[in-house]
Amino acid sequence: MRRFPLRRSRWALPFLLPLSFGHPYAEVGGGEVRLRMGLLGRADVPVERIASIGTMMWPWWGGVGARIARGMVAFLGASGAVVVLGLTEPTPVRAPLSWRARSIGVGVEDVSGFITAVAAEREAAAGAGRPGVEEPPEAPGA
Q: What 3-state DSSP class applies to 72?
């Protein structure tokens, strides 16, 4: 498992610390992406459910913590670049109550490293699920 800490700004710490003990993080490995943000939220997303990976800019006025938007849950501790995982189907998330999301935003410190790790995990899962390619049998008399 590879761990990516979530980016946090100083002004957000008073809001995050009471409900998000330790340092919030995202982990990639074992065929899933795991998000942990203390009591604020959590998600375990199988990589097979990730249809797309992109980025967006989260505005400062959007807030911090586990944020709920239309069809989306974002886990972040600062404004700025956020990785958006588009999902193939609504997936259960705690934010802090149970919720179903079609996309998940993740405000990690290393955006490009996180994207690379998720893409590699998706490829590994897709490769592990495919049976080996077999050669077609030769035609008789060939």
A: strand
Provide the sign of the torsion angle of the four alpha carbons 25, 29, 34, 38, taken in this order. negative
Per residue in 109-138, pLDDT (tens digit) is 999 999 999 999 999 988 876 544 444 455
9, two tokens: 């700004």
- pLDDT confidence bin for 65, thresholds 50/70/90: confident
Residues 6 or more apart whose Cβ sits within 8 Å of residue 46: 31, 32
Domain layout of the chain by residue ranges: 2-127
What would the two tokens of residue 50 be? 């990730």
Taking CA atoms, 34 is separated from 6, 9, 29, 31, 54, in Å, by 12, 22, 8, 10, 17
